[in-house]
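I had to read the description of the data format several times before I understood it. For illustration, here is how one protein appears when written out as sequence plus C-alpha cells:
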Amino acid sequence: METKGKIVVTGGAGYIGSHAVVELFAAGYEPIIIDNFVNSQQSALEGIQAILHATVKCHPIDCTDIEALRGVFREEGSIVGVIHFAAYKAVGESVKEPLKYYHNNVGSLVALLQVMTEFNVNKLVFSSSCTVYGIPDQLPVTEATPVKKANSPYGNTKQICEDILSDLARSGGSTIYSIALRYFNPIGAHPSAKIGELPLGVPNNLVPFITQTAMGIREKLTVFGTDYDTPDGSNIRDYIHVVDLAKAHVVAVDRLVQNKGEQIEFFNIGTGRGNSVLEVIHTFEKVTGQKLNYVIGSRRPGDVPQIYADVTKSTQELGFKTELGLEEGLKSAWDWEVNLKNSNRQTV
C-alpha cells in the first residue's frame, strides 16, 4: 500500500505517542517507532497492532544515543519527518532529579536534530507543554503569553528545547522546519480500550490515579490543595482527550509536509476551558458510577494554580478543533483501566 511516507515517532510506545502512531497510520503515513521502554511497555505495541491490524516497526533505542539514532535513520532510508515525544515528564520527580531531566529531555533533542541534519530530514513536530508559561498573569494563555521562569526543571527543559529550535531557525544555516505543540493535560484512552495511559509505579497524573483508586489499586486519592484562588479551591487544568491530541500531531505533520508554515511555529493544543480537580473527580463519579475515596492534602511543589488555553491560533491556522470532552475522556480512561485489570496488565 502506498503511504505518504515514513514518520519517525520517538517515544512512540508511550501514552501520547501510541495514540499518535494510530492516527498517523489512519492518515496514510508509515509510523516508525523509537522507544527505549523506560516509561512505556511492550504491550503498547500489541495494542497498536490490534487496533491497526498491522505491525508497526519499532527500534528499541535511547534517543540520547546519537550513534543508535544514526543507525535507525540509515536503516530506514527516506524519512519524511519526525515527531519527538521521548522525554521524562513528572514535574515532582524533576524537582528532585533535575540532572536526569536535563540530560534526557534536552540531550535527546540535540542528538535528534544533529542526526536529522546529517540525513536531510527537515520536518519536526516537537512535544512541548503549557508548563513553558509558568504561572501566567492572565488566562486563558495565548501563544503570545510571555514564557516566564519555569515552575519546575521539567518545564524548564521544555523552554530550553523551544529555545534550541528558535535558535536553529534564526541561525540561517538550518533547513529544519519545526512546530512546537504546547499542550495541556491529556486524558483518556483509545475508544477500543486497547491502548491508554499505563504509568509505571505510582501515577504522577490525576486521571490514572483516579482510575486506580476506583479500581482499588490505590487506597485513596489525595487532592493537592484546596486553598488556591479558584472557584472550589483546587487546581484548574485544561484536560484534552488523548485521541484529539494525537490528531493534532497529524495536522501539524501535514502542515509541515505541505510547506505551509514559518520555519518555527508554536501552537496551544487544548480545549479552551479549564476544569478543577474536584470537578474532574465528580464528573468521573457521574459517568462511571464509581465512588472515589479522596482526601484533601497540602499543596504539591511545582504545581501551577490554574492554566487553560486560548485555542484561537490552532483553530484558525492549523484548522484543529477538539471533538471530545471531559466526560468522554474520563469514561474511556475507566474502560481502559477495566481492560487492564481483565488482561492482568496493570502495574503497581
